[in-house]
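Q: Given only this backbone (68 positions), what sequence would you predict?
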């Protein structure tokens, strides 16, 4: 019975969310305009740090390999 209540609650939430977006469309777009650029900057920084860490680990691994 709990599974069905969860599914029903999810469907109700989706419908209410769609109605809310339709009625507050301009507010929603303003929110996106304010949120998307910082999310992109933070995501880019995370990717940059991950990439630099991987390059650093790769260079460290090459130094530690015994020469034949």
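A: Predicted residues:
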């Amino acid at each position: 019975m709990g599974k069905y209540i969860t599914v029903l609650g999810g469907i109700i939430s989706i419908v209410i969310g769609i109605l809310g977006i339709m009625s507050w469309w301009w507010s929603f777009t303003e929110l996106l305009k304010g949120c998307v650029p910082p999310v992109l900057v933070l995501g880019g920084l995370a990717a940059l740090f991950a990439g630099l860490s991987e390059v650093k680990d790769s260079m460290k691994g090459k130094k530690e390999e015994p020469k034949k």
